[in-house]
Amino acid sequence: QVGNTGGWSQADWTSEIQLAQLVGIDAFALNIAANDSNNTPQLANAFAAAGSKGFQLFFSFDYAGHGPWAQGDVMALIKQYGSAGTYFKRNGKPFVSTFEGPDNAADWVNIKAQTGCFLIPDWSSYGAAAALQLANGVADGLFNWAAWAWGGGAMNTYVDASYMQFLNGKPYMMPVSPWFYTNLPQYDKNWMWSTMTLDLWEQRWIEVLTASPQPDYIEIISWNDFGESHYIGPLDDTQYEAFGADRGNSPYNYAKDMPHDGWRELLPYYIDLYKTGTASFTKESIVTWFRTSLAGACADGETTGNTASQLEYEYNPLELMPDRLYFSALLAGYAELKITYGLNTYSVKNWDSTPDGGVGVYHASVPIATTSGPWRVTVIRNGATVIDYAVPQGVSGSCPGGVTNWNPWVGSKQSSATVNGKPPRTIAQQECIEGWGPDNFATLCNTTCSYGYCPSSACVCTNKGLARTKPKSTGVVGYPANGDPNYGGLCNFACNLGTCPAYACSTTQRDVSIPKTSPFNPDTCTSGQGSGITNRLCTYTCRYGFCPMHSCQCTSRGPLNLPPPEIDGVSKVTSNFGKDNGLCNFACKRGFCPSPECS
């Protein structure tokens, strides 16, 4: 986020670059908004600093922050910096990305012709298939922004699978992010995307390592976007403008005193596995993260889990944010955890996830029901202490401004002793040994993923390791019971191993039946109602997935009913009854503008 760096000198850029290099990051994607006054001075500082440290940079033109970029401005920047040795390139071409901007896709025909750049945009609002068709296929590859889980569910790879399928060998840049929480009312942003287990960082790196084929690039979201809480760079008092009354107008600064540096601790290990298929380490380490107040101790700030603005069903955040302490540990062998929290002592002997051969990243969590000051976690192996971490941050029953901070505190500590840690097998020597699928796919994916067959179009692999011995073949040939080809390979594989659930599979081949909606898309609101003056609006908008929980009540869920297209020429819409959470804007722009509610 170059827009956050207005107070930086070249030395500040150098310091941040050195931190990134320490953990194996090759380049910064420089997010730049059109006509931002920081662009000219800070790009000069950034490229000078990168040149002094042998680091790479590339542009990510932000078409949402300050509106679309002018073609000429884009070309001027690429021509100015694209030939620099510090500018990241693919096959000699300057590598360029975007944040959104699909409506300006045609601009890139001329931009590419004039600059010779290699374009991998994020046009996620269109989806992979449509994005690849824009401007007669001007994109050379695609970046996907869907790095977060939906409504507390586990992170999945269905969007990644869609991108890889439609790209058909063209480069794919896969997103990885540890968290998402934003509360910036001036920008109409107040939601979280979360997994119930809050282990998104670990889940997503496993998905990177189990992806087949491996993505060409990984982009971590983000280094310094404090307003969305997914920063992994250091805290910086000069970068908090997003929270100000003249910007996002946040009720409080939810990044201040909330370090995320601990999430960089395991990056060298994960990045080496991605780049080379193997990794080694000489220091064991423990990472912990948690919220600094109990979930129900304060007001929720009207934050939602998911956002109706993206036609998602909204949850109360209390449903998605359990009060727990979370741990990931990079270990050279099995060890136990001892957690001393207030008057309670917890012992973790059975981790939630363990690495292949016992070497790698372990994950666990423990519940908490009370507040505590600073607490302690100890890693113990064969009775001896490996790491003793006195965590300086506690969990309280109060919150800044009386509003719960849904952004976590993250910390880490390394062992003092040196180890020779290396997994017994490379990624190529492993296969999937554990995975899951939704709803009717659950039993099938649990079976097939355990034995190496975990197609990302239907299942999500959650662990790789030494191939397991398959059950004796039954010779049964399975087919989709309802003709849905999504079940085809799964039924064939699973039925032959003795798992052939009748609700999903049949031994009789049926006519192919393509579902109208993807079984992997989460349900959203399909009907709803409001109270008093909001009722007519809610009845209309909830039908199309736009059902903000603080204005409406959703009464049924199912596959999304596509909303009518927006009408040209409808721009300024006003709610006549105060805060409406976007109801009038959504409805009026689609031809339903009831009076006196809206004008």
TrEMBL record:
Q: Name one Pfam family in it.
A: Glyco_hydro_71
Molecular function terms, GO-annotated:
glucan endo-1,3-alpha-glucosidase activity
Designated name of the protein: Glycoside hydrolase family 71 protein
Extract the InterPro entries matched here.
Answer: Glyco_hydro_71 (IPR005197)
